[in-house]
Every structure is written in structure tokens, then in C-alpha cells.
Design goal:
Elements (H helix, E strand, L loop, with lengths): L1 E3 L5 H10 L4 E4 L4 E6 L4 H8 L8 E3 L26 E6 L5 E5 L4 H10 L3 E5 L11 H8 L5 E4 L10 E4 L6 E4 L14
Parallel strand pairs: 1-8, 2-8, 4-6, 5-9
Antiparallel strand pairs: 2-3, 3-7, 4-7, 5-6, 9-10
Helix pairs in contact: 1-3
Length: 190
């Protein structure tokens, strides 16, 4: 189903879709994203993207207050100013291994997280190893019959994704340079 973001029922349909285990494509902070409840929709999103088992998805959380249920680590004080925003942080997971978390700035995503009350997977709209799609006609053509809902905000010029920083290591390690440029002081080896 395709719905325009300006439609008065778009948010209610988005909440219903996601709450009932569906997968949606929506405008996010920097690009369109595929979202679904974590961890329930993982296998379906992997099939949609054609993505292997080894690459984890980012999980969106409403605020740092959600961290204790996911990790024993705290958000470092030096990074608090970047949440909410386009900064994905790698934490140690309570379940073992690590987990990538981001607090989105986008109002619709914040409202959705509040309504659902659970972390959401978020990943770019593309097949694995291909460029992220930003033209709505291309998104519809490739994914309309693979997801339950597409919320259209028109074309969103291809932007950079979030910056990814691994904070399980000291010093922190930059895994992907995205739209947010962190000060050099985070990377003493430079």
C-alpha cells in the first residue's frame, strides 16, 4: 500500500502496520528507510534486501533511557549532544556481541517509537550492495510488492546515511563516515 505523508491517516496506518508485525518504507532523518519491529522482522527485512546473515541492522530507540534494556553501557557524556541525530553507536549487547543503536531526530520516527514502545530495525531502501534509492518512483517499482506500506514524501535527494561509531573500543573507532562529522578529538590516532 502507498500513502502520502500528508494524508491525515498516514501515521495511523503506519502505526497499525508496524504494530502488527509489518514492514514499512518511510522517510527517515537522512534518507528513506525500511523499518520493522526488532527483532521480529529481521528475517523478512533480510529477504527484502537480499542481505546475508552477517550484517546486523541498526535499531532505532526513542531515547537513551531505553539503553538499560539493551546494553550495560551508558551513553558517553561526550556524545550526548549528538542524540537525537544521525549518529549510530555500537554498544555491547546484553544478549552477547554488539548492537547498533540510534536515536532519530525525525518527528514521525519519534512518534512511531513512542506508540510502538519497542526498538525498530532501520536500514536503507535498496537491495544489498546497491545504492540507496531516493526517487519515490524507483522505491515503488522495486519494493511496492515486498513491503506492507510505503509512506511517500516525494523524492528525497540522496543524502549521506548516519555516521557509525564503535564505542565498545577505546579510543572509539569510526566505522562509517556519514552526514555527521565528529571532532578529531574522538580519534587520537589521526
Amino acid at each position: 500500500m502507498l500513502i502520502n505523508i500528508g494524508d491525515k491517516k498516514s501515521f495511523c496506518r503506519l502505526v497499525d502496520t508496524v504494530r502488527n508485525g509489518g514492514v514499512a518504507i518511510i522517510p527517515c532523518d537522512t534518507i528513506y528507510g525500511i523499518v520493522g519491529i526488532a527483532p521480529d522482522t529481521e528475517q523478512r527485512i533480510r529477504m527484502i534486501k537480499g542481505r546475508g546473515e552477517e550484517s546486523p541492522f541498526v535499531r532505532l530507540i526513542q531515547s537513551a533511557d531505553w539503553l538499560p534494556g539493551i546494553t550495560n553501557q551508558k551513553l558517553p557524556a561526550s556524545l550526548q549532544a549528538y542524540w537525537p541525530g544521525p549518529l549510530t553507536l555500537i554498544f555491547t549487547s546484553r544478549e552477547g556481541g554488539s548492537v547498533a543503536l540510534r536515536v532519530p531526530k525525525d518527528n514521525q520516527l519519534q512518534r512511531l517509537l513512542k506508540e510502538i514502545g519497542q526498538p525498530l530495525f532501520s536500514t536503507s531502501v535498496n537491495r544489498s550492495q546497491e545504492e540507496a534509492l531516493w526517487r519515490i518512483k524507483d522505491i515503488i517499482k522495486q519494493f511496492e510488492h515486498k513491503v506492507d506500506l510505503i509512506v511517500s514524501a516525494g523524492d528525497i535527494k540522496a543524502g549521506k546515511p548516519s555516521t557509525i561509531l564503535d564505542i565498545t573500543l577505546r579510543p572509539f573507532r569510526l566505522l562509517r563516515q556519514g552526514v555527521l562529522e565528529l571532532p578529531d578529538s574522538y580519534f587520537p590516532e589521526k
